[in-house]
Amino acid sequence: MDLLYKPPKWLKSFFPDVLWENRQEGIVLTIDDGPSENTFRILDSLDSHKIKAIFFCTGKNIEKYFREFNAIIKAGHRVESHGYNHKRLIFKGEKENEREISKTNELIKQITGSEPEYFRPPYGWFNFHTTTTVRQKGMKMMMWSFLTADHTGDFSKVKRLSDSYLERSSIIVMHDNKKSRDIFDQSLDYVVKTAKEKKYFFVCF
Ligand SMILES: [Zn+2]
């Protein structure tokens, strides 16, 4: 099960074009699934730690939480694509993969003036059609090297995984959704504390 939380080397080597960790020193914090009604709180939390993050947003939520989406940009964070409807693209054909990615790209471009550069597949599940579409759009796929488990709502799990898996060039995933809402702040505090103890620092692309 920890395969998902810390993808193993063999899996990474199977997909060399995918970004699994930061190639330079520094932890990259990514936040999936937003925007949501919790986004403003997350922005405050990031601000208190002086961290800039990459928000992988769904098109559906950008439309629903438009104010929150603009606040993410205004606060100087980066916004990238997490597809439109948060579907399991591994089970979808060429058309649906294309639609999920195009629709979100167009929406982000309308608002920010430029298309996203990175795509993160919902649930981390993708197939050949996903990788082909991402490549055709001139984008890159960004996965992760450490999934914090904040979406389980179990803070003791976040602690255990952070103690074991946080590394100096990790790409971390946290969530801007209902499931992580109650433990997001304490999870981020714990990850930042752990990073500081190990003398790691945060960067953003
Ligand atoms: Zn997601």
3D architecture notes:
- This protein has one domain (2-9, 18-203): Alpha-Beta Barrel (TIM Barrel), CATH 3.20.20.
- Strand 4 (118-119), helix 7 (128-136) and strand 5 (140-141) form a beta-alpha-beta unit.
- Helix 3 packs parallel to helix 9.
- The protein has helices spanning 2-5, 9-14, 39-49, 59-64, 66-74, 94-112, 128-136, 155-165, 184-197; strands at residues 27-32, 54-57, 78-81, 118-119, 140-141, 146-147, 171-175, 202-203.
- The two termini are 29 Å apart.
- The chain has 205 residues and is of the alpha/beta class.
- Strands 1, 2, 3, 6, 7 and 8 form a six-stranded parallel sheet that branches.
- Zinc ion binds at residues 32-33, 82, 86, 122.
- Residues 32-33, 82, 86, 122 line the site of zinc ion.
CATH C-level class is: Alpha Beta
Separation of the first and last Cα atoms: 29 Å
Task: Give the ligands present.
Answer: zinc ion
Q: Briefly note the CATH topology name.
A: TIM Barrel
The helix content, as a percent range, equals 40-55%
Unreliable spans: none
List the helices and strands and how they pair.
Elements: H1 2-5, H2 9-14, E1 27-32, H3 39-49, E2 54-57, H4 59-64, H5 66-74, E3 78-81, H6 94-112, E4 118-119, H7 128-136, E5 140-141, E6 146-147, H8 155-165, E7 171-175, H9 184-197, E8 202-203
Parallel strand pairs: 1-2, 1-7, 1-8, 2-3, 4-5, 6-7
